[in-house]
Amino acid sequence: MRFVQPLEISQVDIFDAISLAKNPPRRGHMVAARPQVLEAYTAYQEAVPEVGQLALSNLTEDQKEAMHHAYAVATKPMTSLRTELLKRVIVSRCPFCSINESSTLDHYLPKENYPEFSVLPNNLVPSCPACNTKKRDLILERGTNVRMFLHPYFDSIPELPFLDVQIRVALNALIMSYSIVQPQGMPPETFQHISAHFRELDLANRYRIMGLEHLGDQYPALSRVYGVNHDSARVVEKLLEISDDIHFMRGPNYWLAKMYKALAENQEFCDGGFEVLRPDM
Fold it and tell me: How many whole angstroms separate alpha carbon 4 and alpha carbon 130?
């Protein structure tokens, strides 16, 4: 979960370039839909981040199909837009999960429901395939007006610590459990929003799996600082150093920073318990 700056680009120019690149009759359908589409663009920008309650357009079926086609079937302007959205270093890692590489574009408002936003740059968010698949066409929590996912371009991620991880060593295994906790001062609506994002993208399980995979590479370093003198204090120092560095670069709720901090606070892990990470265990 993290905020990224939207691409600075003329969204109207993008629409016009893509429509002109299409063959008839789709070009004609897009040109005919242009007034409604640009009106919808304005409504989107005025509503952000609360775009989940935007009214559906009155596009004809032919116009909807043309808008879907504008995204799905490559034209030079669409290919250029896709490249511009994905090539920035800031979005190289998926902003929805902060785990995997961004290799797809997610329609924050799904194009199935909102075809008018099929090629709107501010609705196209770089994402990993896992988040794109899990997000599907979901928008609002059932029976509420709460959006189920943070909008990476427009939602500010609170600096208050809301991500927690519990660590224990048991039966030659490292048990990690991630959860969301409501810190003092966080409005209930914000907590509900973050909780839905965390739940629907299965981040507790994904953070656990990737955390264990990441830690496997740290075994040699931890074994080295522990040494023949069994110096658990040096292990704590090493773990805190990693946590602080990640915290500085990624913020207080980055999943790896939280993991290393929790490990540093687990005396059993630091006093030789890290042996559960050995490849032959």
Answer: 19
